[in-house]
Amino acid sequence: MASGMSQTSIAQKNWELTNNIASVNTLDEIYQYDPKQQQEILDAKPWDKDPYFFKSIKISALALLKMVMHARSGGNLEVMGMMLGKVDGATMIVMDVFALPVEGTETRVNAQSQAYEYMSTYVNAAKQVGRQENVIGWYHSHPGYGCWLSGIDVSTQLLNQSYQEPFVAIVIDPIRTMSSGKVNIGAFRTYPKGYKPPDDGPSEYQTIPLHKIEDFGVHCNQYYSLEVNYFKSALDKRLLDSLWNKYWVNTLSSSSLLTNAEYTTQQIVDLSDKLETSEPVSCRALIGQVDAGDRKGEDKLSRVTRDSCKTTMEVLHGLMAQVIKDRIFNQVLKVNPCATEADPKSMDDVPMEEKSAQT
């Protein structure tokens, strides 16, 4: 039992280290809600003067786990929820989250009047039990196609920022999270209408499926990403332990190679399609006929190479996990049934001639 608990603790610590979850003191100000201070920030509205006012977001470990588990429960369908928190300077702090009863598909999620009624009831009930945090954003999932804002997401976030500031959008990819072992998450805010952001150079690269590239490219300059950090306290420990004891067994009983088999197949098909679009340029490059106008095609080929490496590493990660579990649980030592206590030889130590004589 003690050994099992130690293995559970090790697995939980590894998850916290992988996702850079920092511990804070339970008496820290981050857990104290000051209504007067929050109202002063709302009255000042510093985000109206600076489109880049919010630079980062802090998410509690409990809220992170709840979002990931909710997104994972949706499978290939998008899910949606709301976030409760506050503002501390240029940092948005997410203390808790709750799911919304919405209609989801593989490409979008639609919140109807029932969802808004549920949200209002939930927030009022939370305030009655002493949770004074307000709704500061929404989250939804992008199963298998990365963390970014689509055209519909941009419109939704822009509308929310117009009437419910401060507001942030979080996107989680549960499929890539299961494949890589690290939470695939992004936090975003949209620019005001008519604002043209400066060219800050290329952003961090991420794999986008071919059928989503156009939607990504059209709207990628209408929002910016926030730095995401996580925190936890001793008060979260019991809740985290309760959630983790339910989750950690899945690490041993499941395989990403089987769970994400469909996702891996889709990745390979997507790589094939991308290679076909870049093939003409790569052929001309071999005979030295690439001009300056075709450099974009070369970049396209390099992206395909990076996507291929990423898919390969994820498959190898799953394969190595299976090999390790096989070595731990399936390697049974064959003991010689004729061995005595005085001469406890195993079958592996007995010469071949003796084995033949015994049989």
UniProtKB/TrEMBL annotation:
One of its GO terms (molecular function) is metal ion binding. InterPro entries: CSN5_C, JAMM/MPN+_dom, JAMM_MPN+_peptidase_M67A, MPN. GO terms for biological process: proteolysis. Pfam families: CSN5_C, JAB. Residues 57-194 form the MPN domain. One of its GO terms (cellular component) is cytoplasm. Keywords: Cytoplasm, Hydrolase, Metal-binding, Metalloprotease, Nucleus, Protease, Signalosome, Zinc. Belongs to the peptidase M67A family. CSN5 subfamily. This is COP9 signalosome complex subunit 5.
